[in-house]
């Protein structure tokens, strides 16, 4: 009997999720990918057994890719995803790592973290909106941007992200 109560709940949740996404057509748009390198070090009383070590970020560098074009300051790229990267930040020295260590803590080795954050800015009437997105949307914009092909954008839940971009078929 319990199974019967779950089915309406699943149906209602599915309907809610489907109705909270929307699509729009954008003729003005720009995709960005912020590529960055950061050095980080993990600190903990016991690095092998502590599940949530404290993380300290040291030097970082970044470069903003726009619509797939080579940005100023980029030194590496394009990579196999069409992204340009900044110079590597200086690796923290042993003195820097030890200075941030608290008593009873041990420090891990410096790790180089590579990160990308994608965003899409598009025009709606007189307004511009910038939302987080993903690699696939970024690549669609890179391909459509030179011809300024209108794109149909599928927005995520509560219109808080761009989940999909497809060229508008005429």
What does this structure look like?
This protein is an alpha+beta fold. 20% of the residues lie in helices and 39% in strands. It is built from three helices and eight strands. Strands 2, 3, 4, 5 and 6 form a five-stranded antiparallel beta sheet that branches. Strands 1-7-8 form a three-stranded antiparallel beta sheet. Strand 7 and strand 8 form a beta hairpin. The model has no long low-confidence stretch (mean pLDDT 90).
Q: What keywords describe this structure?
A:
single chain; 170 residues; alpha+beta; five-stranded antiparallel beta sheet; three-stranded antiparallel beta sheet; 3 helices
Question: What is this structure, in a nutshell?
Answer:
By secondary structure, the protein is an alpha+beta fold. It is built from 3 helices and 8 strands.
Strand content: 35-45%
Strand elements, count: 8
Low-confidence stretches: none
Query: What value does the average pLDDT take?
Result: 90
Shape label: elongated
Distance between the ends: 51 Å
Q: Counting H and I runs of at least 4 residues, what is the number of helices?
A: 3
Q: Specify the structural class.
A: alpha+beta
Question: How does the major sheet shape up?
Answer: 5 strands, antiparallel
Q: Helicity, in percent?
A: 10-25%
Give me the Rg, rounded: 22 Å
Q: Topology as H/E string?
A: HEEEHEEEHEE
